[in-house]
Amino acid sequence: MEIRYGVLKRGNSVDLWTKIERQILSRIGILPFAYKEAMKAGELIHHFYSLGQPIGIEDIMIASIALGNGLTVVSANIKHFSRVPDLKTENWLQ
Fold first, then answer.
1. How far is residue 66 from each of residues 13, 28, 34, 92, measured CA to CA in Å?
2. Alpha-carbon dihedral sign for residues 54, 83, 94, 91
3. Following CA atoms 84, 71, 93, 83 in sequence, which dihedral angle do they give, to the nearest 10 degrees?
4. What's the average model confidence in pLDDT over 62-82?
5. Predicted pLDDT of residue 3
6. Which residues contact 52 (CB under 8 A, 6 or more apart)?
7. Residues spanned by CATH 3.40.50.1010 within the chain?
8. Rounded to whole angstroms, how far apart are CA atoms 62 and 64?
9. What is the model's pLDDT at position 61?
10. What is the pLDDT, as a whole number, of residue 43?
11. Which residues make Cβ contacts (< 8 Å) with residue 67, sequence separation at least 6?
């Protein structure tokens, strides 16, 4: 979802999307956003709203999938993800 959105924002999306599909998406698995991830997402939304510091639903969904599967989020958006309790993050662009 996030990758697709980013590609569409840039323009010339057909060529870039084709490269991403061939070079990245063909090599990775896409994890589901199912019941356990939805429950974790609800908890995270509540957590951030109770602090008065909500973050985007896209980041909540990504974080809940990573937490539910014991994974690390690799992103340049450490500002949001680093605030998620117990979430491991890495920024490969630094």
1. 27, 14, 12, 17
2. negative
3. 0
4. 93
5. 86
6. none
7. 32-94
8. 6
9. 96
10. 97
11. 40, 84, 86, 87
Q: 32-94: which CATH topology?
A: Rossmann fold (3.40.50)
Displacement of CA 51 from its chain's centroid (Å):
21
Token look-up 């993800």 returns 81
**The two structure tokens encoding residue 61:** 């969904």
CA angle 37–39–45, rounded 5-degree value: 100
Q: Furthest-apart CA pair in the chain: how many Å?
A: 42
User: What's the pLDDT score for residue 14?
Assistant: 87
| Token digits of residue 16 | 């870039």
Give the model confidence (pLDDT) of 19-71 as tens digits: 999 999 999 988 999 999 999 999 999 999 999 999 999 999 999 999 999 99
Contact between 40 and 64 under an 8 Å Cβ cutoff? The reply is yes
More confident residue, 71 or 15: 71
Both structure tokens of 17: 């999307």
pTM of the model: 0.83
